[in-house]
């Protein structure tokens, strides 16, 4: 029974194999990329490195390594995991004051054969007598065996190791990840590189087809066909939208002669600037290496994850003390099986800043139940003593980011429009977009060698936009990100920037930096006369396209379970829900079901001089009930009565009451009705995502129900349906037609914004007027509403309703 119970509680089925997600080799079609730990991968990496090494002497003369030097270094690297370049120079007896050219970039080490370095001490000479297939089989076993005892038995039975050797090999952790090519390709390339041939030369000789012009397309193929190995959903979505817009453009205007793409790369920097960046990168790498070493020594974890390393770096920064609670941190409580500290985001996660600069550590309970998704200032500043203790701990932070993080702790409101740039995805998007669009020409250059797909740095675009006075088109003297049309202005600048201008501006930027002048570039003349007026008319006419949100996947309800129905006043049922007392609003305090608990909470707030329940963020402030036996029972959560009307879903044990939550409304139906006097009136009916999914069921379809239901009974005429990002045209104040985008749907109102508006998260809106939001649906009728659709090219067409 004990074994059965243990299995029922702790059994976990094996994770599904992810080998189908391993990338394919671009040189050997259909074959997967090889594991980094395989001997051929380790050897190929060594050969590629030593064939590229260039020794620079004190007199600045340089040469590649000789054949004998390569052989000596190759043999040494087969036995070590890595070597410093200083050790390489000593091994090869290089002249004094000589250096390898690669060291100028800050490189310190050359990688060795990590697999052989770990396994040779265990297998001995037997390892070198094995065939490549036998060595590969051992590597695969070490990579894929999950249970240590199973691996030990396998090592004894199949590999012929004794008990001690089997134990040692079970503790070996090999290099994770995958090479760029398959085993088959690497074997061919390695044969050429063993003769001293550079990787690029070997590839061109063995796989010349990889340098040839590829198939030319007249329209972009689907993303999954163009990039079958792409598994990043954000990038895949971006490429899908790119395909939709570009194919529409090509269908109307034809394939462009030149494509220019703005990348996330920076402009050319001075030598000192590049050195500063390199030095910082090397310092970060050194700190991460030291953290890994410490984790290995204290936790016996040989290959820690990047998150483990980040936690240790954050602990060093905050002096191994939780800045919020003052609790001491050690390696076991930080990374152990029962870790007690979370990586915490100073600016809440909703602002999408997942960079190191926005992170610190926090005691798990404090992070999940007190600080949560809020600014530190909002949670703690009301308690002066605790707030000062937190700030003093933050002021003691170490490192170059200490001041920045202190500023974030002191921030009362996150700046408008603050969102992380998601730079990694942006860079990947720009590189992939260039490759995607190059399919029109068989490559970035066509058969005649003309560069058809060109890349521009973002800094150039920003400078030319200012120089050509285009920022004033959207109001103000700086880029107006509240107006989606700023993307079109950037696109215009990119289209007008040729390669020659890029080189001129880049050189000018470097010279200005070296001279120490404030101005970054020289003045740039506008492309033609009357440039700004002609651009203004085009920008004004643009209609911004948004992808309508009609998918049924998403939240069905708010995610909280409510109580069963309780009889209320006037025969109306009421429902209840439990909430932590720190999360209560003033109105919810009045709706606490138990009068004794309500009074206890109010009395405690009076004692603490608190105006709201945020004072209960500190568990020490929680009130308590006193029983007849004088026992104190702390109050952490309370039952409150809600004003909504939950819906019952599920059956028997799964039956529960739920309410619609944020984002769970799918669409609204606009209906024409008649009031008591027979006058025409418009109203709307909200259809939740749960209801829309129900209408897809067999019974609903058999009864003739539709997701977008048209039949609503007598005296109700279906006008149209609207989802988020649908478009509606309304009369303006002066009779002109204005295009609006549907932003939010609720039972009380439908929120609209003009199509070009980007900053729709504020509350600056006018109800029932000619502003951004319409409160009453009947206002649609008064302004002659018409549902329309906008194509990816900005054309306004009648809706399909």
Give the strand order, joined by hyphens, for the main sheet. Answer: 22-21-20-23-24
User: How is the biggest beta sheet arranged?
Assistant: 5 strands, antiparallel
Low-confidence stretches: 265-271, 416-426, 513-519, 762-771
Structural class: alpha+beta
Secondary structure layout:
Layout: H1 2-10, H2 39-52, E1 54-56, E2 62-64, H3 67-77, E3 82-84, H4 85-91, E4 99-100, E5 109-111, H5 114-123, H6 125-129, H7 132-144, H8 148-157, H9 163-170, H10 183-193, H11 199-206, H12 223-226, H13 233-253, E6 259-263, H14 271-299, H15 306-317, H16 331-335, E7 341-345, E8 359-363, H17 364-371, H18 376-380, H19 384-395, H20 402-410, H21 423-437, E9 453-457, H22 458-467, H23 486-495, H24 499-515, H25 531-541, E10 566-567, E11 573-580, H26 586-590, H27 595-608, E12 624-626, E13 632-634, E14 637-642, E15 647-649, E16 656-658, E17 665-674, E18 680-688, H28 689-694, H29 698-702, E19 717-722, E20 727-731, E21 737-745, E22 750-754, H30 778-782, E23 786-790, E24 796-798
Helix pairs in contact: 2-3, 2-10, 8-9, 10-11, 13-21, 14-15, 22-23
Short note summarizing the structure:
The chain is built from 30 helices and 24 strands. It is α+β, with helices and mostly antiparallel strands and 801 residues long.
Architecture overview:
It is a single chain. This protein has 801 residues and is α+β, with helices and mostly antiparallel strands. The chain is 39% helix and 14% strand. The chain has 30 helices and 24 strands. Strand 1 (54-56) and strand 2 form a beta hairpin. Helix 2 packs antiparallel against helix 3 and helix 10 (183-193) crosses helix 11.
